[in-house]
Amino acid sequence: MNPRTRKALEFVLDNLVWFMLLFVLVVFSIFVPNYFQLGIFANIIEASSVLGVMSIGLALVIIAGHMDLSVESVAALSAMAVGILFCSSGIGMGVQLHPEWLMVPVSLLLALAVGGIIGAFNGYLVVKVKMSAFIITLASYIWVRGLVLVVSGGRSAQDLAPAIRWFGIQRLVGLPLTAWIAVGCFVVFSLIMAKTPFGRHLVMIGGNETATFRAGIRVNRNLVIAFVLAGAIAGLAGWLLAIRTSGATANLGVGLLFNAFAAVVIGGVSLKGGVGTLPGVYAGVLLLSAINTAINLMGLPANFTQVIHGLLVLAAVLLDAFKQTIRQRLA
Amino acid sequence: MNEPLLVLDNVTKNYGAIEALKGISFSIGKGEVVALLGDNGAGKSTLVKIIAGGLEPTSGRMLFEGKEFLARTPAEAKAAGIETVYQDLSLCTNVDVVANFFMGREITRKVLGIPVLDERAMEAVVGKALASAGTRIPSLRTNVEHLSGGQRQAIELNRFVHWGGKLVLLDEPFAALGVEQTRRGLDMIRQVANQGIGVVIITHIMQQAFQVADRIVVIRQGVVAGDVARNKTSPDAVINMITGETLAGAGPAG
After folding, report:
1. Which of A214, A222, A271, A329 to mutate to test the interface with B (most CBs of B within 10 A)?
2. What is the bridge-based pairing of β-strands B33-37 and A247-248?
3. d(CA A171, CA A176)
């Protein structure tokens, strides 16, 4: 095989999920009536912002060779914290700050802090107690959701302060600011993972933790940071979720975790760790969103979504194995 | 040879009730190559891990360049100038050759105050290092998982030659290498020692030890069973020390 074909083939393999996304968009545009519209594409991006942000954090810890099942519940708790403070009806306390815009940084910091603290707790236990991240974050998934129910009493908060809601309403080039926040997060974290020593170290830790420890990389420190980031990013997802629904309910975001997993796996991140990139994950998120949109447009019952997502995850895993065999031939 | 670089003074290590090391004392000079020999389970790898910062000794002390020394982590040992090549390779197969070469020591440049990997600079350094060692790898951007065992070991060996430091520990570094590569590896060791770097090499192959070492230290059942200059002993005498037919602490034989 000449180097040129080989390079082209490697490029396709590296960006397979983007090609899949393109393929799906073309197929839907041809066969689904009304699919081919700018508004629909904007909607695909918009609808994927919460899931996208959450997937970033999940992808970080999975690439580092661990797991964070708690992101969904953490997002819900952050959303609930923002909702309780800054909503004016339901269980909302309707806290007012002057000037009004001050509520934006305060609510954002609150959401990030709630997520970061739980992330730090997870990371500490994983690193110090050396327990499986799966079990620890499964526990967090349960108790944090429990905490949401406790603080809300099972009720909901509505009517988020307009100053915060502004992010969900104000549009820039056809997309609400919340969607731009998600896109910005992907850009920033993609750069961090690909271009900085920290990102490089996370990938290597996911590949061979012993080797990185021997090489003098501070493995524990990096892992705790990864968990804190995953928590804080989940907090941001919660903030976006609160804006999107203009409040918070006790069962906010239920099921998002599995969508995030699906997006991460479809995006080419290996659950074994050390493999995957964030742009791929974003393509995975968009792919899920594109399919959802098609299902809506075709008027299929929404229940089909889950079946299709499940099959898609299965396809992604099979595809990953297939890619491995091709790569081995290439080498 | 001359002033000692590292001195081990009665170093012991217990795993619970098991005494892996019962009191090891020997020294390594600057620019000296010491071959560490011993049967399986004699405690060689344990000893290497203690020097390299992977394990803490139960008792005893070490002097590095005349100063009290104890590395709690590999990072501390590295900072002091001790490089280690482990028996099971320490490479991350999911990243490329360049990333492995610079693991934990990446060259960065600041962009808006944020450290950013300087890939081009790193690739240039790796290309030069591998070329001067005569190692051929098709692409430095290939992930290590696609390379052969020999190529992997070559990367690891080139890595220690490049970083040097003051003392190098090699735990069976040639296990996956062919004849020609082994010869080149042994040359590398001499070359490193000629720069004044101390080298400790663990090997099972008597011939290698006699080819490269200045001194041969035999460990048996957690104690030093022999510590002799290479030119004052013979393979047979060393084998006797390893298997225990010669008394512990025996000097030159044969």
Report:
1. A214
2. unpaired
3. 4
In chain B, where are the structural domains located? 1-92+160-182+189-254, 95-142
The CATH number that domain B1-92+160-182+189-254 falls under is 3.40.50.300
Closest CB from A206, A216, A327 relative to B74:
A216
For residue range A32-87, list pLDDT tens digits in order: 888 888 888 999 999 999 999 999 999 999 999 999 999 999 999 999 999 999 99
- Calpha distance B96→B73 (Å, rounded): 25
Q: Which of chain B's residues have a Cβ under 8 Å away from the Cβ of A203?
A: 92, 94-95
Residues B80-127 have pLDDT tens digits of 889 888 877 789 999 999 999 999 889 999 988 889 999 999 999 999
Where does A15-330 sit in CATH, by number? 1.10.3470
Binned at pLDDT 50, 70 and 90, residue B2 comes out as low
CB spacing of A196 vs B142 below 8 angstroms: no
- The answer to whether residues A142 and A82 touch, using CB atoms and an 8 Å cutoff, is no
Are A215 and B103 in contact (CB < 8 Å)?
yes
Mean pLDDT of chain B: 84
CA separation for the pair A12, A18 (Å, rounded)? 9
- Chain A hits for B147, CB-CB cut-off 8 Å, are 331
- Inter-chain contact A208–B142, Cβ cutoff 8 Å? no
Percent over 70 (pLDDT), chain B = 95
* Mean pLDDT (whole number) for B51-78: 87
Burial class of residue B7 in the structure, from the number of CB atoms within 10 Å of its CB (0-12 exposed, 13-18 middle, 19+ buried): middle
Find the closest chain B residue to A204 by CA distance: B92
- Determine which of B103, B114, B139 to mutate to test the interface with A (most A C-beta atoms within 10 Å): B103
- Select the residue from A200, A203, A220, A330 to test the B interface by mutation, using most B Cβ atoms within 10 A: A200
**Cα(A187)–Cα(B236) distance, integer angstroms:** 65
pLDDT band at B247 (very low <50, low <70, confident <90, very high): low
Report DSSP letters for A193-261, one per residue.
Answer: HHHSHHHHHHHHHHH-HHHHHHTT--HHHHHHHHHHHHHHHHHHHHHHHHHHHTEE-TTTTTTHHHHHH
Q: Residue B246 has what pLDDT?
A: 58
Residues of A with CB under 8 A from a CB of B: 195-197, 200-201, 203-204, 206-208, 210-218, 274-275, 327-328, 330-331
Token pair for A129: 């107690």
A132 — pLDDT class (breaks 50, 70, 90): very high
Q: What is the pLDDT of residues A243-259, one digit of tens each?
A: 999 989 999 989 899 88
Give the β-pairing of B167-171 and B198-202: parallel
The C-alpha of A231 sits at a distance from chain B's nearest C-alpha, in angstroms, of: 23
* Predicted ipTM > 0.85: no
Q: Determine, for residues B95 and A327 on separate chains, whether the beta-carbon distance falls below 8 Å.
A: no
pLDDT at B251 over 70: no
Closest chain B CA to residue A210: B90
CA distance to partner chain B, nearest, from residue A106 (Å): 26
